[in-house]
Amino acid sequence: MGQIDPSARIADGAVLGADVTVGPYCVIGADVEIGDGTTLGAHVVVAGPTRIGRDNRIHPFASIGGDPQDKKFKGERSELVIGDRNNIREFVTINRGTGDGGGVTRIGDDNWIMAYAHIAHDCTIGNHTVFSNNATLAGHVEIGDHVILSGFSGVHQFCRIGAHAFVGMGCLVNGDVPPFVILAADYGRPRGINAEGLKRRGFSPERIMQIRRAYKTLYMSGLPLNEARQQLAQDGESEDVAAMLRFLERSERPLMR
Known about the structure:
The chain has helices spanning about 195-200, 205-220, 225-235, 240-250; strands spanning about 10, 15, 20, 25-30, 30-35, 40, 45, 50, 55-60, 65, 80, 85-90, 95, 105, 110-115, 120, 125, 130, 135, 140-145, 150, 155, 160, 165, 170-175, 180-185, 190-195. It is α/β, with parallel strands linked by helices. The protein folds into two domains: about 10-140, UDP N-Acetylglucosamine Acyltransferase, domain 1 (3 Solenoid), CATH 2.160.10; about 200-250, Up-down Bundle (Udp N-acetylglucosamine O-acyltransferase, Domain 2), CATH 1.20.1180.10. Strands 3-6-9-12-15-18-21-24-26-27 form a ten-stranded mixed sheet, with helices on one face. The longest helix has 15 residues, at about 205-220. The protein is elongated and about 65 Å long.
């Protein structure tokens, strides 16, 4: 059963679902909705407009839904939308969107966001991701499902990281990362595919082999990018290669290659 600590400050207009727990000295602003079963530890701040789903755990001193850190922001209405069953650890900061950036920062379901991670304005995060300690996103970043960002990694604004990719510790990402790819070194360099992660998620050896062949075409064949894309399109109709091609077609930033 939920419990509201008497020291918490909850603004008029905030809506809390059933069995919500709010710890000591939390501050919840107006225009905040918190779904059933969500728990806020001590000293959590949630500013609005923010929508938080069911069964999330938000740990002490997290700051959720604050104004975007963008000089162009002039106080226009913008939102943060968080899904279900996310685990948001100590001192995490997540900002709302901006008017000219789509207006919404969006977090999916079942994400693990560790201490001191930062998710900036207008970012879109998928499901089942892991943000290790101090992982940082600039504005307008897209993160696909099952992506892992290791500790102290940073992602430049407007970059995209495809599903099942793995970014190594301390990597600085300033371009798009296709699905399934591992990055390592200071300015992330491709180091193969995330085969171990794919095995853990039930990918068959045949699927992993197809992804490995696609990686070799894209990164090891010596072909220019357009020719590598054409080769991938000719190589087969696997759903994973098709996902890589769709990702490449949408790229606006340079590819990490």
